[in-house]
């Protein structure tokens, strides 16, 4: 089936879920993900949003495709669904207290951070592949701090904010030729790092002090009105320290930082270790979502989510409601 046929079939299924055959669910989800991943670049100060994004936003939002519960998804389908949800942004259901609790539970479950997944949002099979369910939970937790609280009771059609689809496009200055740009991924410059954490005592209580991978956890702590999750942001400057030739991609040298694994601390002492995933195309302003913990990775050590986004000149965070 050609690309156009796949897109037409995806539209047909999204508008009428009853016609979807179970064996084609992965193909439908993959088609929608491909449409929001393969995009032309935009100018840093322009608003030339790719047509793909408007089409997908109108299609899935209008039919409540992301929030529906009619399908019993396989593990592969859950990953694709979570990937699409992460790219899409915030849905109406994401305001539900139960949904918030679900994401907090996933993000702050300490057994989700092990050597097998590099202590980050990756699958536990050691493959280094992204665990999109984990990443979507991180996206949700961060988004609840970014979107204004007073929007909760408004009739929102689609929320445009820096963690939504319009920010998945590459941001390219006019005249930039990546084939002749050493820092082709746009790492060098000022970045804003936002992160969340909760009281370490609450974290340990919720996880039963992380002494077992099988004991039942206590999610009710996140439903307590006294529970507090702190959201903070700091500005950091990154630079490419060195490059290495990639024989398979001659115009894209390996940059010493591109894995989005980094350590941080104070006065030259590394304390925190972070693992993240770039969302969207190369140089997208969506940024990097991931998880932080300590460099020692001891079982009782704290964990939490972070969001890293590059700041541009006259940087403004746009949060808006549009009618699709």
Q: Helical residue percent?
A: 25-40%
Structural class: alpha+beta
Q: Beta-strand percentage?
A: 15-25%
Largest sheet: 6 strands, antiparallel
Mean pLDDT equals: 89
Low-confidence residue ranges: 316-324
Secondary-structure element order, as H and E?
Answer: HHHHHHEEHEEEEEEEE
Distance between the termini: 29 Å
- The Rg value, from CA coordinates, equals 20 Å
Q: How many β-strands, per DSSP?
A: 10
Principal-axes shape call: globular
Number of domains: 1
Read across the widest sheet, the strand sequence of neighbours is: 3-2-9-8-7-6
Number of helices: 7
Descriptive key words:
six-stranded antiparallel sheet, globular, 7 helices, two-stranded antiparallel sheet, disordered C terminus, 324 residues, 10 strands, alpha+beta
Question: What does it look like?
Answer:
By secondary structure, the chain is α+β, with helices and mostly antiparallel strands. The chain has one domain (92-322). It is built from seven helices and ten strands. It has helices at 3-15, 25-37, 51-62, 75-88, 97-108, 132-146, 200-206, and strands spanning 158-160, 189-198, 229-238, 243-244, 254-255, 261-266, 269-278, 288-294, 304-310, 320-322. The strands form three sheets. The protein has a six-stranded antiparallel β-sheet. Strands 1-10 form a two-stranded antiparallel sheet. A hairpin with a 2-residue loop joins strand 6 (261-266) and strand 7 (269-278).
Secondary structure layout plus pairing:
Layout: H1 3-15, H2 25-37, H3 51-62, H4 75-88, H5 97-108, H6 132-146, E1 158-160, E2 189-198, H7 200-206, E3 229-238, E4 243-244, E5 254-255, E6 261-266, E7 269-278, E8 288-294, E9 304-310, E10 320-322
Antiparallel strand pairs: 1-10, 2-3, 2-9, 4-5, 6-7, 7-8, 8-9
């Amino acid at each position: 089936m050609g690309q156009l046929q796949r897109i037409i079939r995806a539209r047909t299924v999204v508008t009428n879920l009853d016609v979807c055959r179970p064996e084609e669910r992965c193909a439908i989800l993959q088609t929608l993900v491909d449409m929001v991943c393969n995009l032309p670049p935009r100018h840093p100060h322009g608003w030339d949003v790719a047509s793909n994004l408007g089409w997908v936003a109108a299609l899935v939002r209008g039919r409540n495709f992301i929030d529906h519960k009619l399908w019993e998804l396989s593990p592969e389908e859950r990953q694709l669904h979570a990937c699409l949800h992460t790219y899409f942004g915030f849905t109406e259901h994401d305001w539900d207290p139960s949904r918030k609790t679900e994401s907090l539970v996933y993000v702050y479950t300490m057994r989700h951070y092990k050597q097998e997944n590099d202590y980050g949002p990756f699958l536990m099979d050691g493959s280094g592949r992204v665990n999109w369910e984990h990443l979507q939970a991180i996206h949700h937790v961060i988004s609840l701090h970014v979107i204004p609280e007073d929007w909760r009771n408004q009739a929102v059609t689609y929320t445009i904010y820096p963690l939504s689809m319009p920010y998945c496009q590459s941001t390219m200055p006019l005249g930039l030729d990546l084939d002749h740009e050493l820092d082709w991924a746009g790492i060098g410059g000022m970045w804003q790092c936002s992160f969340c954490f909760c009281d370490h005592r609450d974290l340990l209580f919720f996880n039963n002090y992380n002494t077992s991978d099988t004991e039942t956890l206590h999610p009710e702590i996140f439903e307590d009105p006294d529970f507090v999750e702190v959201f903070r942001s700091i500005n950091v400057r990154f630079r490419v320290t060195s490059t290495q030739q990639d024989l398979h991609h001659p115009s894209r040298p390996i940059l010493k930082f591109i894995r989005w694994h980094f350590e941080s601390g104070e006065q030259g002492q590394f304390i925190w270790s972070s693992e993240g995933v770039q969302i969207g195309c190369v140089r997208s302003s969506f940024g990097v979502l991931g998880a932080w913990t300590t460099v020692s990775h001891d079982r009782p050590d704290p964990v939490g989510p972070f969001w890293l986004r590059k700041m541009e000149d006259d940087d403004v965070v746009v949060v808006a409601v549009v009618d699709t």
